[in-house]
Write a structure and sequence with these properties.
70% helix, Hydantoin permease, 495 residues, two-stranded antiparallel ribbon, mainly alpha
């Protein structure tokens, strides 16, 4: 049934080409579609105001966080690398991850669409929910982990200001968790401009503080001796396999953002801005902050008399409530800038994609927050002394780095092949938001190209001779998914 205006003329949505960008003129045929709401609609050209400085600030704000600080320690402790090998692996991995990041950002910048809507092209209008919800669950887990760190910083801040709060012990950390949780939710509910202003304001401040910490810590250690520290792997073992596993894990650290970068690039004013902003900010910030973590961890023995790899606990050992308080404010800002952008925006859009007519941005944000609480409930209950558990949060996220990259790699490969090779960068915005057009409800090619690498990954866990497929999961998954998708679509006449 056609939608008609008062004059009896059919009202249909259309795409408007404006320079190198496309804008959607929304009429009732799309507005009334069950696949559309205002929050996941394409941005207007006037809304695409982010330039390269904003994009760079976004990445600085996301990269400077407690998990980034700990990456060097994770690679040396869990992956058998030396300090030098760990830092090289981090730099190489972040140069590699720039490829899917910049490529997947192109569609968001040109068409103004978020990540789950872009998935409709390669997985189908409803099939897109499969990869979108996988991405959303991972983000909710990371949201919970980062909120634990932010909550600890809140607890230590209040403890430095109020002696009575310090007496709460780990219970105060639970209170801090929910205070920090509410702060994150409030920022994202304010919209993309609030995130933009938060990142613009926090990025230079975080860089200055990080540089100051580096300047303060360097005189306390012997840098050549630190870099010469031998690896923890068995003596004589070849380094290549260990470094490849480390690089894979570090690629997995931003494997999530390499998928949902359209959630941010839809606000960027040009392709040049999104490319330059990402290339300049991501690898340098990650390398510098990971190096800072290694150096401060090494210096902690001199500074506080014991080796501490967690910056929050290290700073809490300083015998000065004033400096502890100021440092905790900085950690709260750093974690807030990371968490709000990296771990709430994507699942909010992903949950809306399931049922846009029933889930708007506000409901998506709250759903993300509640799932984050549920996923961290075991740690919160432990801090309340209601249960006992020896599960380490650090071990949890270090294992995720490898595990979930195996699932997300195929999605990245499929998205890139679909947009650049199959579609030749041409999408139909109208049909992405309503049924009956060129995009099927379920794109079997995309779903199969995703399912097969996942099945191979699971099979590799049970066969030692095939374990390399899991160990290098992001690379094996992305190339396998891309190849299968291209093979299935090459001779296909359907969408």
């Amino acid at each position: 049934m056609q939608i008609e205006d008062y004059a009896g003329v059919s009202k249909k949505s259309s795409m408007q080409l404006k320079g190198d960008f496309v804008e959607l003129d929304v009429q009732d045929d799309v507005r009334l579609s069950p696949l559309y709401n205002e929050d996941i609609a394409p941005t207007k050209i006037a809304q695409r105001t982010w330039h390269k400085t904003n994009v760079a600030a976004l990445w600085v704000g996301m990269a400077i966080c407690v998990p980034s600080y700990s990456l060097g320690g994770v690679l040396t402790a869990y992956f058998g690398l030396s300090v030098t090998e760990a830092l090289i692996s981090i730099l190489v991995a972040n140069l590699i991850v720039l490829i899917p990041l910049t490529l997947n950002a192109f569609a968001g910048t040109k068409y103004g669409i978020p990540f789950p809507v872009l998935l409709r092209s390669s997985f189908g209008l409803y099939g897109s929910n499969v990869p979108a919800l996988i991405r959303a669950l991972v983000a909710c887990g990371w949201f919970g982990i980062q909120t634990l760190f932010g909550g600890l910083a809140c607890h230590l801040l209040f403890s430095a200001l109020l002696p009575s709060w310090a007496e709460l012990g780990s219970v105060g950390e639970v209170y801090g968790f929910f205070i920090f949780w509410a702060l994150n939710i409030w920022v994202v509910l304010k919209g993309e401009n609030a995130i933009k202003h938060l990142e613009n304001w926090s990025a230079p401040l975080l860089v200055i503080v990080s540089a100051g910490l580096m300047w303060w810590a360097l005189p306390q250690i012997d840098v050549p001796a630190l870099l010469a520290t031998p690896a923890s792997r068995p003596e004589g073992e070849p380094v290549l396999g260990y470094m490849l596993a480390g690089v894979t894990a570090m690629v997995g650290f931003w494997a999530t953002l390499s998928l949902n970068i359209p959630d941010f690039s839809r606000y960027v004013k040009s392709q040049k801005d999104q490319v330059i902003g990402q290339v300049v900010a991501l690898p340098l910030t990650m390398f510098f902050f990971a190096a800072l973590g290694v150096i401060l961890t090494s210096a902690s023995t001199v500074l506080v008399g014991e080796t501490i790899s967690d910056p929050i606990n290290l700073i809490s050992k300083i015998d000065s409530p004033l400096w502890v308080g100021l440092a905790m404010v900085m950690i709260i800002i750093a974690t807030l800038s990371t968490n709000s952008a990296a771990n709430i925006v994507s699942p909010t859009n992903d949950f809306q994609n399931m049922a846009p007519q029933f889930i708007n941005q506000s409901k998506g944000v709250l759903l993300t927050g509640l799932i984050g609480i549920a996923l961290m409930s075991w740690e919160l209950l432990k801090k309340l002394h209601w249960i006992e558990s020896d599960r380490s949060v650090e071990a949890l996220y270090s294992n995720w780095l490898l595990g979930y990259s195996s699932l997300l790699g195929p999605i990245a490969g499929i998205m890139i092949v679909d947009y650049f090779i199959i579609r030749r960068q041409q999408l139909d915005l109208v049909d992405l938001y309503k049924q009956g057009g060129r995009y099927p409800n379920f794109n079997l090619a995309g779903l199969l190209a995703f399912a097969i690498p996942v099945a191979l990954t699971l099979a590799s866990l049970f066969h030692s001779y095939f374990v390399w497929y899991y160990q290098y999961g992001w690379f094996t998954g992305s190339f396998t998914g891309a190849a299968i998708y291209y093979g299935l679509k090459r001779n296909s006449r359907t969408s």
